[in-house]
From TrEMBL:
Functional note: Binds to the 23S rRNA.
A Gene Ontology BP annotation from the UniProt entry: translation
Organism: Bifidobacterium aemilianum
Pfam families: Ribosomal_L27A
Residue stretches of biased makeup (Basic and acidic residues): 12-44
HAMAP family on file: Ribosomal_uL15 (MF_01341)
Keyword Chaperone appears in the UniProt entry: no
Family: Belongs to the universal ribosomal protein uL15 family.
GO CC aspect terms: cytosolic large ribosomal subunit
UniProt region (Disordered), positions on chain: 1-53
Protein name in UniProt: Large ribosomal subunit protein uL15
Keywords: Ribonucleoprotein, Ribosomal protein, RNA-binding, rRNA-binding
Domain annotation Large ribosomal subunit protein uL15/eL18: ranges: 82-149
GO molecular function: rRNA binding; structural constituent of ribosome
Length: 152
């Protein structure tokens, strides 16, 4: 009697025969939806084999079109603003004490950059320069005229 119960077919035991059920074809969704190209679309190098990053299909690539970096720029380089002795003589005809603030007021230099005095021109006035650097020729001309330079 127990063996007869096992042979009775129940609703939950029903299954389609293997291979009898296929998923419906999704119409209008392209070739890739059918599994034909494994989701790679159709034709072309990128579908057949991967190309390297930056490859532009034979067009001159961006990294070759851009200008190359020439040389080296130090991020720590100090950019000095230069003032010639001839400019000092024009701005301060009487000589005397000259600071960076005085040069900024006169419009000879901009605020926020170190200042260097160069030896172009003649110096008859005695300048007392404070807070600036000076070239060797400028230093000798200023000291010869009775002036001085301090880098404070």
């Amino acid at each position: 009697m127990a063996s007869e119960e096992n042979t009775i077919l129940q609703m939950h035991d029903l299954r389609p025969a293997p291979g009898a059920k296929k998923e419906r074809t999704r119409v209008g969704r392209g070739e890739g939806s059918k599994g034909k190209t494994s989701g790679r679309g159709d034709k072309g190098t990128k579908k057949r084999y991967q190309v390297r990053p930056g490859f532009e299909g034979g067009q001159l690539p961006l990294y070759m079109r851009l200008p190359k970096l020439r040389g080296f720029k130090s991020p720590f380089k100090k950019e000095f603003q230069v003032v010639n002795i001839s400019t000092l003589a024009k701005l301060f005809p009487k000589g005397g004490e000259v600071t960076v603030e005085d040069l900024i007021e006169q419009g000879a230099v901009r605020h926020g950059y170190p200042v260097k005095v160069l030896g172009d021109g003649e110096c008859q006035q005695a300048f007392k320069l404070k807070g600036v650097k000076a070239s060797a020729s400028a230093k000798s001309k200023i000291e010869a005229a009775g002036g001085s330079i301090s880098e404070e």
